[in-house]
Amino acid sequence: MYLSIKALHLIAMVTWFAALFYLPRLYVYHAMARDRGEQQAIDHFLVMERKLYRGIMTPSMVAVLLFGGVMLYQMPFWLSQGWLHAKLLLVALLVAYHHVCLIYLKQFREGRCTRSHVFFRWFNELPVIALLVIVFLAVLKPF
User: Fold this and answer.
1) What is residue 80's predicted lDDT score, i.e. its pLDDT?
2) What transmembrane ranges does the database entry give (predicted)?
């Protein structure tokens, strides 16, 4: 049973990260279209951003947290290991990042987002760093 839950956790994690990588990239293009006054492109990005956030990104995050919680229930001794504490901190930061993405989604929808496409290019790199550290922590369990 544990391996099935782990597989589901990994599938949800891959899906969540794909969305975490793609949504800020859409924000890059949205900000560029905004700066050029391309209303048709802006309308298209608004639909894509909303569908990605609500239809893929959020359900994937919920699945990651659910299956991760089940794995912790099955392997409670992990809670005493430092690598897991570091991983859970990064997951909490990713959940916060996920919600910051919602803030930007709402700002774009309301025409209030003033962040530049350059900002969103840098913002887009944060989940990459988190993914690298999380995978190394989970695989190597260094402490």
Assistant:
1) 96
2) 6-28, 56-76, 88-106, 118-140
Instruction: Output DSSP code: residue 37.
Output: T
Report the alpha-carbon distance of residue 72 to residue 81 in Å, rounded.
Answer: 12
Between the alpha carbon of residue 59 and those of residues 56, 64, 88, 101, the distances in Å are 6, 9, 19, 15
Residue 87 assigned ligand-binding role: yes
Give the separation between CA 142 and CA 48, rounded to whole angstroms: 39
Length of the chain: 143
DSSP letter assigned to residue 76: G
Distance CA 56, CA 98 (A): 12
**Mean pLDDT for the stretch of residues 28-33:** 98
Q: Which pair of structure tokens corresponds to residue 44?
A: 């298209």
9: annotated binding-site residue?
yes
Nearest residue to 24 via CA among 110, 108, 90:
108
**Predicted model pTM:** 0.95
Instruction: Say what the pLDDT of residue 39 is.
Output: 98
